Amino acid sequence: MVDTLLNETLLMNGTNGSLDNSLNGTMSIHEQSSQCLPSWVLNAIGVKSVYASDIAVAIVNISFAIFAFLSNLAVIATIIRTPSLHAPVNVLLCGLAAADCLTGLVVQPVYASWRFLLHHLGEPCRLVHLYQASRSLPFLFVGCTFLNLAITSADRLYAVSRPLAYRTAVTSRGMTKIVVSAWVVWIIYICLMETVVPKAIYEPMENITLTLLIIIPVGGHILTFLAIRTNNRKILCTTHNLQHATLYKRALKAAGDMAFYIVATLLSLVPLVILLNFENSVIVGNLLFPWAATATMLVSSVNPVIQIRRNTALREALKTVFKRTTVE
After folding, report:
1. How far is C-alpha 110 from the geometric centre of its chain's CA atoms?
2. Cβ(40)–Cβ(282) under 8 Å?
3. Helix 128-161 vs helix 242-275: angle between axes, to the nearest 10 degrees?
4. Three-state secondary structure call for residue 194
5. Which residue from 49, 184, 186, 224 has the highest number of Cβ atoms inside 10 Å of its Cβ?
6. CA dihedral 270, 276, 278, 283 (to 10 degrees)
7. What is the CA angle 144-166-84, rounded to 5?
8. Could you give the count of Cα atoms lying within 13 Å of 242 in the half-sphere of its Cβ?
């Protein structure tokens, strides 16, 4: 009841022209497009506050999309072109950067286009595929990010628990195969969800999948830090093997860096998770939810900053590659 009153107030105060005209226009659109887009989307067309918000959403997404694409591409190129960085943990960083790079290249422009064109096309039915893409693509690439974080949590747990065994058992090529295989399985899963799964169970499956994607990397990192606490005294204080201690310290540093990515990604998801169950209203779905989705996508611009800031070797290699490219 309260939500209905708020929606009516928004329509009354925010539309161009009189309330009667705006409602008549909305009803006309409903009659023509009821099978194309949800009513809560159609009801927002012509509302000035939604229009202003969507213009701002489009500007923010396009601006950060450029930064996310270029910065993550620079990270990937630097790791590939620097032999000293060809380590399993950096393969995981490449996977994370690839997901963020694709977010800047594909997801953010698609989402910005959807929010912008909603107010500039006379026939909303022409936007149905763009609307579907704006909902599916963020889930796809956020899932890729969490897959990388889940693999990373298992990798770091093994590295801090058995540093010497990790060095001989885990290779860059093997890690690349794991990351690529996980991405392929995830893409197939999303395609099946979008094409085969009935609408009645789609949302519960989406919620369960999102929950698992959050729980697995978080749980893995908790186990990693418990292992660190257990092994600190044993390895750093009692070991006489300098190589063992050095490898362990490197694993500790990498685990700490990955914790920053986990925290940043989880914080970006908080607004989205809160608003997910209230999306189907004019106010939440068109004023609040787009900003929550934008906050989630902006993590693709935050991650490369964390990588470059925390990883000294990557930072120095980036400077070297940039200077070499400039000279050439």
Report:
1. 14
2. yes
3. 150
4. helix
5. 224
6. 80
7. 75
8. 0
Q: How big is the CA angle at 205 (ends 267 and 182), to the nearest 5 degrees?
A: 70
Q: Would you say 262 and 217 are in contact if contact means Cβ atoms under 8 Å apart?
A: yes
> Percentage of the chain with pLDDT > 70?
80
CA distance 96 to 149: 8
List residues bridging with 62 in a β-sheet: none
158: tokens are 């093994």
| Per-residue pLDDT reduced to its tens digit, 57-66 | 999 999 999 9
Backbone phi and psi for residue 175, each to the nearest 5 degrees, phi listed first: -65, -35
pTM check: above 0.85: no
Cα angle 130, 100, 82; round to 5: 145
Q: Which residues of 131-152 are buried (b: 16+ CB within 10 A; e: fewer)?
A: bebbebbbbbbbbbbbbbbbbb
191: which 2 tokens?
Answer: 């395609």
Three-state SS letters, 92-145:
HHHHHHHHHHHHHHHHHHHHHHHHHHCCCCCCHHHHHHHHHHHHHHHHHHHHHH
Contact between 318 and 85 under an 8 Å Cβ cutoff? The reply is: no
**What 3-state class would DSSP assign to 162?**
coil
Is pLDDT above 60 for 47? yes
Q: What is the chain's Cα-based Rg?
A: 23
> Sign of the C-alpha dihedral, residues 40, 46, 51, 52?
negative
Cα separation, 286 vs 42, in Å, equals: 10
Query: Is the CB of residue 47 less than 8 Å from the CB of residue 7?
Result: no
**φ and ψ of 15, to 5 deg:** -90, 155
Residue 294's CB is within 10 A of a number of other CB atoms, namely 23
